[in-house]
Amino acid sequence: MSTKQFNVVIVGLGFGSEFIPIYKCHPQVNMYGVCRRNETEMHKIADAFEIEKRYTSYDEVLADPNVDFVHINSPIPDHGWMTLKALDAGKHVMCTVPMATTIDECRQIVEKVAETGLKYMMAETVVYSREFLYIKDLYDQGELGDIQYMAASHPQDMEGWPEYWERMIPMHYATHVVSPVLGLMNSRAEYVSCLGSGVISPELAEKSGNQYAVESCHIKLKDSPVAAHIWRFLFDTARQYRESFDVYGTKKSFEWALIEGEEHVLHTAKNPEHEIAQRITAPDFASRLPEAIQKFTTAIQDAEHLSFIQGAGHGGSHPHLAHQFATALADDRDPWPNAVISANWTCVGLCAHESTNKGGEIVRLPDFTLA
Ligand SMILES: NC(=O)c1ccc[n+]([C@@H]2O[C@H](COP(=O)([O-])OP(=O)(O)OC[C@H]3O[C@@H](n4cnc5c(N)ncnc54)[C@H](O)[C@@H]3O)[C@@H](O)[C@H]2O)c1
């Protein structure tokens, strides 16, 4: 293992601060600095975690030659421009989901990564959750058989979250449902068809430019006989938060628990009827990590953050994400998901909303996401 440590600056210290203790313990990362515009709040966090380098300006971070990579955790509308600026400054980028809010920004990021050889990874929590890792193991070992169909849902009532969510469109934050259905077989989405359903309040509709409460989308997987269904809402629909992933194989199928905290269900074909369904809990995968960060699959720093109250620690994914990117830098390989895959996952949602606006017409994913 290389002994080089990569200097990281975390930008945005809400959800972003979750990663500070993980990077502090990771053998290949030096938790170099933090950046937040609100100076008082920034000092509070930097003091608590004893971080010396502090920035209130993103430009100062990018001008610092000691910074190897930025981990961007700013609000969604800022992901695209912040990533592009970091790449222009010669920094590697890990960015929380989604990659960007327009297809053009995704294209620019993919092109810049190809031009510069810098690493880019979208920090998608779902594909490093213990459930996904468990299902992926079952699939890789042939236990599911051939995949016949996948479905994923992400209902979440965003009332009480930062105001910018009122300007968001459900399918523009869809990577938590897109990533598992594409990530399981490492597929790309070829085209989508999406319908809007129900109505949201006129105030929210005016703010976001979207009138539908729910968006429900079918995805055609490229070079595969499989299709998947995903659906989302952000407001005005009654359901507990859930990020579910159901997979149907010829031999075994996995269905996500209906209520958070309950057990999932594994179905085995050809068993006697009453033995087909079995309740299961996904095991933890901390053993895949360096010992120093294993404890973070179950530890949450800020359990009061709405994201953790509703997201229950994102399936223990945070240390896996940090490790994936740190080792990609150390080993000089592409992280997973890399820029092209992240663009395909993000553009599914962007294309889906375009399809919604066209009454469900098929919209093809741009070529630069299929390479
Ligand atoms: N499961 C997941 O993948 C997951 C979970 C939670 C949040 N997130 C993502 O993390 C991001 C942040 O979410 P949050 O809930 O912490 O939001 P938030 O609004 O609470 O925090 C955003 C942070 O970014 C900082 N910021 C904004 N603009 C900045 C700038 N120009 N320079 C430096 N700092 C800036 C703010 O000061 C704040 O600290 C969002 O994009 C969200 O989608 C992802």
TrEMBL record:
Assigned keywords, A-Z: Oxidoreductase
Signal peptide: none
EC numbers, comma separated: 1.-.-.-
Domain of life (superkingdom): Bacteria
Domain Gfo/Idh/MocA-like oxidoreductase N-terminal: 6-122
GO molecular function, one term: oxidoreductase activity
Top EC group: oxidoreductase
Protein name stated in the entry: Putative 4,5-dihydroxyphthalate dehydrogenase
Gene name as annotated: pht4
